[in-house]
Every structure is written in C-alpha cells, then in structure tokens.
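2024-03-11 09:14:02 INFO receiving multi-entity request
2024-03-11 09:14:02 INFO entity count = two
2024-03-11 09:14:03 INFO echoing inputs for audit
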Amino acid sequence: MNETTLLQVSGLKKAFGGLVAVNDIDFHIEAGEVLGVIGPNGSGKSTLLNLITGETKKDTGAVKLNGNDISAMQPHQICRNKISRTFQLVRVLPTMTVEENVMVGLLFGSERKNFNECRDEIARLLSTVDLGEKSGFLASQLTYIDKKRLELARALANQPILLLLDEWLAGLNPSELEESINLVKRLQESGITLVIVEHVMHAIRSLCDRVFVMNLGQKIVEGTPDYVLSHADVVSAYLGDESE
Amino acid sequence: MLIKDSRQVISLFIIIGLLIVLCVLPHISSAYIVSLFISILYFTSLATSWAIFAGPTRYISFAAAAFIGIGSYTTAFLVETLPMVFVIIIAAVIGFCLAAVVGLATLRLSGIYFVIFTFGLTELIRQLVLWFEINITKNLGRYIFSDFGRPEIYYGLLILCVLTFVSGYILHRSRYGIALRTIGDDETVARHSGINATWVKVVTFAATSSVMSAAGAIMAPRWTYIDPHIAFNHIVSFEIAIMALLGGITHLFGPVLGVIPLVLLLEFLSTTFPHYSLVILGLSFLLIVFLLPNGVVGVGRSLMKLFSTSGDRGPS
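2024-03-11 09:21:47 INFO inference complete, emitting structure
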C-alpha cells in the first residue's frame, strides 16, 4: 500500500445465512482514479458497496480509508468521513422539495453547514447536475433521470472525497447516457475519487482507469477496461462457457 | 424570531389573544367549563406531543398510557413529600428515561412491530406495577390527597401545552426537525446522509413521552384514586391516536383540531349513552380513517387550494 492509496479493502467477507455474497475480497483505490466494478447480477457488487458504506456489517476483513479502519462504523459516521453514495434503486426524499433534498446532504454531511450557508451551495450543486430550474419541485414529481441527478446532488453535498455510484447510469437513453458520462468525467476532474458499479460497458470503457470483475462474491479479473472486457473468464462469467 | 408576512402577524395575535382568554378563563367561568377545558388541555398536550414524533417519523405508538400511568404513579408516591413542581419534573424525567431505554430497544423495529411492542409495553408496566402493589406494598389502589386543585391542574396543563407547542415550533424549524422528516421519508437515505437516525428517533421519542408523563402527573390529583387499571388505560392511548389523526399529524396545530371535537363528543357520549360510548368511538375511528386520511388540516389545505389560484406552498 503506498501513500496515494485512498481506500484499502482486505479480506472482506459477508455471508447471508449460507449464501456468501462477498467472499474474501481484496482491492484498493488510488486517490483520483475511477475504479469500475462489474459482474453479473447477484455477484455481490451492491453488497460490496453496502459493506464499504456501513449499511451491511462485515463478517471479517477490513476497510481502511487513508489507513483508518472504517468497517465498524455506522453509515452516518462513514458519510461524515466524506464517503458518499447513490443507490441501485434511486432513492430521493419524496415529500421534500428538490432544494430540501440537497439541503439534507449539506446540513448533516461532513461539513455540517448552517441554514444560511446552504442557500448558495444548493444553487451551485443543482446547477452542477442541471436541476437548477426545478429547485421548488417535490422530489416525487421528478422524472426518473432527474431523480438520479438529484440523488447525485445530495451525495455531492457531502463534499465527498470518495463517491460510490451504484448503477447510476442504468436505464438512461443514449443521449442522457452521454450527458451523464460527461457529468461523471467532470466530477473526476474536480478531484473526486469514484467507484462505479455498472452494467453499461460503454460507460465503463470511457470512464474507468481500472476495472475489476466480480463473480459469485469473488474478484476474478482485474486490469484496464480493454484487458478485462476481453478476458475469457469475464466472458464466461457473463455468458457461460462455450462447452456448456 | 423573524416575522415575515402579515399572515404570521395575524397568527401571532390570534395566539396571544387565545392565551389571554385561556389565562383568565378559570376566573370568569363555571366549574363545569373549567373541567371541560382541563380535558381539552390534557388531551392537547398528549395528542400534540404524540404527533410531534409520529408525524414526521410515521411511528405509531400505543404506549401513551404507559407514560401517563408512570406520571400519575409518580404523583401518588411523592405528592405528600415533595412540592408538585418537583413531582411533575421527576415524572417527566422518569418518562424520558424509560422511553429512551424502550426506544433504544425498539426503534430499530419498523412499522407494525413497533406498534405492537408499544401496546405490549403498557400491559407489561401495568402488570409490573400491579405485582409490586400486591406483593410489596400490599395496597391495590392509592388515594391522592393534595391541595393541587382544579385551578392548579388547569394552569399546570396550560403551561405544559405552551411548552409543548413552543418546543414543537422550534423543532419544526431546526436542523433536528429536518432530520426527523428525512428519517420519515427514507431512513436509509437519512443514515447515508450523515444523520444519526437512531439517536434522533430515541431522543424525540423520549422527549415527547416525558410530556405524557408530566401530563399524567398533573392530572393524577384530579382522579383522587388510582389503581393500575385506571392509570394504565389502553383506551387513552387509542383516543390520543384518534384525536391526533383526526386533526392531522403533519401540522403542529393539527392535533388540537381533533382534540376539541372528540373531547366534546366523548363528553356528550358518556353522559347521553354511557353504555355505548366506546362503540360509537370505535365507529368514529373507522370513519376518520376512511373519510379524512389527512385529518382536518388536510381538508383545510384542500379547501385553501380550491380558493387560491396562486398555489403557494408555505412552510408547514
């Protein structure tokens, strides 16, 4: 592990009853990089994110952020350590306005801003994700993609150093996808380290510096996107073996 | 406190006027009216504190009777040794501590499990007090003799109501109130946005429960005699929920709008149909849930929407 390692995961394991969802995973994330995590449905990707963010408690292993083990912390403590996330199934606060949704991230996140400081920040964050015009809408009135954008704005309100996107690009049409990929690129340029769990291979190719593939709770291949996506084990994990 | 527009100035004047009327009421009206207002103030403090927790978090508690009972037993035990002010404070502290312990154990439960647990809690505490009274103190009931009479009870409850409303108002406008609303909307999001959801829920549950214990402590001298069945009365838990839901739990002043008609209705029913009052109460609960899912406040809002074209949504 060298100085630029932001997150170091070692020997992480989680079983639900007899099902081992994450089985002895080791990996690290360098500061500033975009790491992709791919794998078939049920391979343990979301569980891995839930373990990092404290939503699920590990069985064994360690998750170290800048050298400090965070794996015993509660989700709100991990959030205050500047790790933000979005959810596989988009989650907004339905009875609150778009502004209030973002305000929640500002009020309780790592910076714990007061009400007056929030106003300018909300406008800035909403324009980042292109929702400035809809700040007074109820979150439940938004379209699917706008909900995804709002979720991202809330995550960014926490001033994250590490942002975990769980299938954030799923379900978008081609032009929305291009827009969203560009948005994620801008986030990376602003200095945020990203972990992207994704099925959209085009996005993985254009965004990720490094990718690892999970299958049945284990890491099977790791490398550059091009290397990983052409690897025989990856093809068989997704499509099955030719002999079968 | 910032006064922003004429509507707020008007509401402020109405509130002050109402307070003045309530303050002089015992001096100008009959004993019957004062008794009626004691009931209204009693249920206002209970239903409002109940709704401060249930409104944003959507946790329905049937433990109100447990906290009221604890309050009235505190009075029964201490009324002859301590001034009432201290008795009420001690009752509130005991209610707070018990609710905090219960909250830590149960607020991880969601929805229906929490409802059932709070119902069972009242029964558990009632049986414990019953066991204690039979086996340790050897007296089943307790008489409460005190010079804390009708006017004192009236003003005690009035102060408790004012304190409840003021704290509720501050809460609604604070960071903490937003945390509560976030938890009600999506607890997972709340936790992943930096909110210590367990702590927020437990403290709010404990604080609102301490109001109920204080109310029970203030009311106890009025009952003169209590035993576990009177002090821990499940019906009261239901009545509070009905009143709060009828009024509307999304607005701080909503529950009062349910308390006033239902206290009057209960008063009318118990004098006119003493044997069927509970049946009619049950029917009215069904009707409320069917006809007014958002309470009186909800009806008011729909009417306001009909009459206003601007459609502005002020902060509630």
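2024-03-11 09:21:48 INFO post-check: Chain A touches chain B at residues 53, 55, 74-76, 79-80, 84-85, 87, 91-96, 100, 103-105, 107-110, 112, 114-115, 154, 158 (CB under 8 Å).
2024-03-11 09:21:48 INFO post-check: The first strand of chain A starts at residue 5 and ends at 16.
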